[in-house]
Records
---
Amino acid sequence: MKVVNKLLAKLPDEVARQVPDVKLLDQDIKVSLAQGTFTTENILPPKLNLTDFTLSFEAGGEASVRNFNSPGDVDENHVVGEATQDEATPGAPRPQLLLGGDQGWMRYQVTARVKSAAGVNLAFLSAGTGGELSVTLSDYRAHPLARNMREAAKMDLADLRLMQVTDLAKLATGDALAWQARGHIQTRLELNWADLFTSNLGRLAFVRGSELLALKTDVKAGVSAKVGITDDYQLTFSRPRPGRISIAMRKAKSHEATLGAGVGVTVEFVDVGAVKAQLGHVLDALLGPALLELAGKLGTPANASAVQVMDALVDKASKLKLDELQKKVLRAALDRIGLDPNLAELSNVKAAWDDFKKKVEGKLDEVVKTQIASGFQHEYLRLSESSTLLEVVVDDATAMRFHGSLIKGNLVDLLKWMRELPENQKSFELKNYLHTASLTRQQAYGFSLGLGSFEVLKAQSSRKETWVTQENFQGARRQAFVGRRGYEDKLLGNRGQWVVDLKADMERFSPTPVASDFRYGLHLMLWGRQKKMSRKEFQAAIDDAVVWGVLDAADAVAVMGTIQGDLGKEPIETRLELKMADDTFRALVPKVQELDVGLFSRALARAMPWSEQTPRASAEFRRAVYAPMWEAYLREVQQKGSLMSGDLAPTRAAQIAEHFLRNDPTVKELGKDLLLIESEWRPDAGSFTFAQVTEKNRGTLAKCQAFVSGMVRLRRAIDERKAPDELRTVFGELEGMWNTGFHLRAAGSLLSELSRATPLGLAGVERTFSVTMADRGEQLVFSTTRGTGS
């Protein structure tokens, strides 16, 4: 019989005689073979030269022969196993070979060192490996259950497969080859610029003071990025049916021994001009709309952008040819972006403007890569051990074509081919790619890049609370907590769908994880589905942004002026997002360590529903009118509230409102138009009045108390290095502040106010209000900078 190498000629007989002489169905076996003995006796050669690499069989390693013959057998490689209960669950570990039929498997496994052959570059052999890498090779052979195992072993090993490209053609139906290694996994992501700009404008804010940024992007404009991460992975080739090969890349148990190493993500753009293509949009946002009054002048077209006008002004200024009006406009633009306004009088203004553009371009490149890296890391840490990164069925020729790049951990080449041509797209069957069944990623929200399905937006109410734990071979663990709540609240109208995501994950392995090992974050999003919006509906959405500190009152007017021409004409989608990363969230937690009734009352007052009536049209007016009512209400609940509900009767809430509207000088003056409707409880009058809000959003005091308790618990868990199980309780206590749309508005207001007291203030909170015009495929992202430029 043909053998892979003459040096392996003794292997079939030597191994087969150690395998029981019984049928495959009769017995479960695991035969361990000391590789050191086999190399000493020249049964395994010290080195085996293959096409692209050399295998060195480690003397201290262990080879093994195992069989799988019935449901319940456990393959630590997850190649053989039982069908999962939910085959539709994306990313769930799915075995390529299913137990329970009329066949079983013999698995031959060996560990070896890999070294590149002369002139061959193996990307996973980084400088730190010394040019070698440890791998585990597994060859799965399907046999009828009545086959004699000793005979099967002798036959299989006479033609041993060691993951060479030519071995793929030898796969019989039901066979598989697996390669497990630690290396640099590289994949390719297709992302939308629009998503990348919805939460990070603050880091692009090269402006003075508290200026409004309005960034316009094309919702269809994409960016391709190669993303890499160092981890243990397993590549499997299996044959599900004649003529087809299934390729599966999944995570594997980590060999990371350096506990302080952490997760390292690399990002590079496929198109090196990707950033330049978006630079103009960013510069337009930084310069603001004032320059557009000169559009059509200075030799610019009538529809010129702010950048085009600025270029023309700077060009004339460098030649000292500006008139006084033009100098005034240029001075204002220079001052807005943090440059010396007096440059408008000097010929070297062009050099300063060119330097500024280069600075913004460099920062844009850095910010977008950081956003992609952090988003990918967030998703990756939440993939459980053995989760599938890619699973696709192709023909033999395609599998053999990409075999070389795949064993290096490189998915980029295969993914590029899958996207390239329509005929390519018809020739493969995609089972899973990073938690989806599509190459097209889902819309991104918060910390996510949208690689997995954001299932909380698919149901009227949903809650997800899970732990993902990765354990390395030293027994250390790296954990990530998923705490996410979504809801659809009809009381908020078209703005009624929202998501809150509490982030907690570890970058590094730890022998005994504690709460202080985690990085934390919090993301709140209020989403308005596409519809033709009236002015009132859009004003209510803008009011949400003011309540959360994303816009101020002047910004709200500017945003309305920008959008009002589109209202009622085409579908509009709004997204309001507030996101805090680890440093800001950790600084905020100690600010909530006791129940400050006044603080919560102000947040609840600002969150009261918007209307055109003067006392309700402004968040600050609502604070002045309703904060005293809320404070009195909460304090009375503390003293007299029902033990069953923790609330006052709505008739009592109406009496509290009437009292302040008649007797408090400030409330009486500002809220005089509200006395008639607020002084009587009307159960069928909607959700407008103070009494109606308390009735429809019950348990407010209890939710405020639980929120404080959660923050206290989290601080103690971090300071006292408690077990991370505390995070489940923390999430349960915090989430009451966002389980109705009204309380979510109040939570955003509360967090915004608390953030002002942290070292970075509101500059440490990513805050955006995005408006998408569906028909024209255009997105505007608004954010107030609060002096975040540097």
---
Amino acid sequence: MSKENKIGPKICRIREMRGMKQEVLATALGVSQQTVSNMERSAEIEAGLLAQVAEILGVTPEAIENFSEEAVFSIINNTFQDSSSNNNNYMCTINPVDKLIEVYEENKKLYERLLEAEKSKVELLEKFFNKEK
């Protein structure tokens, strides 16, 4: 039986893609790490265990059975395109320089308002002190 048709290596690859260690899967299944290692080398596993593994990995049993790395890479290649394509869904939509200028202008306006408020306070204090004399 070729590696493509073996269920164990498919489980292993999906687990690795999920960033999960064998120990974590073993703990979730209530078995030893060695049992998981053996399972990942197996051509077949029983349906109940496959269902448990699938649930832990966040996929369906069918997804494990039909898993193929070529399909994964095909999906990635068809979904994520570089900036040379017409698909800008994953490109930055703001110009950082424009954003900096916008923030600078807002700060400038705030400073001007604060300066006007201080001038008003000084004028009021001057009026108050001139009345006292």
